[in-house]
Structure formats: C-alpha cells, structure tokens
Amino acid sequence: GAATLSSTLGVTGAGFFSSTLGVQGNTDITGGLGVTGATTLRSTLGVTGAATLSSTLNVTGAGFFASTLGVQGALDVTGGLGVTGATTLRSTLGVTGAATLSSTLNVTGAGFFSSTLGVQGATDITGGLGVTGAVTFSSTLGVTGAATFSSTTTHTGAALFSSNVNIAGGGLGV
User: Taking the model in full, what pTM does it have?
Assistant: First the structure.
C-alpha cells in the first residue's frame, strides 16, 4: 500500500522506481544525474556551471545569448542572419549569392573584382586611376585638369577645341 513519511528518507543503496517519480518542491542532487531516455522540463533550465552537449542542440524557439557566442567549426545558418552592432570577421568572407549593402562600403586594402564592376551614380576616386586594357565611355569624358596622352589618340568623330592647340614637335599633318 501507500506509505507516507513525515520526515527524511535516507537510502544508502540504489533506489529503483518502476513508475513515475513525483517530487513537490526543490530537488538537490549532490552527485551526477544520469537520465536514459528523453527528458521534458516544464519550466526554465538554469545552469550555473558550464554545460557540455555531446550531440545536436535543437532549439524550436528563439535563442538568446547574453554574452559572446563562440563557435568552433562551421556555422550553418538556414534563413537570415540579423546582426545588430559592429561585426568583425577574422578571415575571408565568402558570399555565394548576391550581396546587398544598404550603406557605405569602406575597404582598407585593395579591392579585386574578377568580373564587371557596375556603378550606378557618380563615382569619386581620390588618388589616381590606373586602367590596363581598353576603355569605352558611353557618354562625354570631362577632364578638369590637364590630360596627358603618352601615345596616339584616334578620333572617329569631330574634335572640338575651345582654346588654342599647341603642337610641340612633329608638325601638323593635314
């Protein structure tokens, strides 16, 4: 039958229960807790020491971390990744799909593009512009300062000069 204890129960050997163990109030376990089978906690799990998970962690709701999240190995995110605050990547950033930047892109080192660079809007370059290969302008080329051509220039249309043309050496062939 049922037994009711009004004081402490001390067990020096192992205790085996063939059905559910119900505990009302707090439970303190001085040694380790070994559980075989799935475990359901009906409230918050608080861990004051380190926690080691030897297999996959599945979270069905949001996960919140109040401090740094360290990941050893790859981080695979299915869905979007939202980051609030500055982000530092200590290695190469590889992007497989398109990337949209909604603000300024500052690059400290050189930038290399292995295909066409498309720019919509004005482009300001501080410093020189070095181009290897042919250049095609689809509209007017305006030069505010002096322009130096180190080789032959070819014009297929009219050339208009709004000031003097000085020819130094070689003459003018007409």
Answer: 0.44
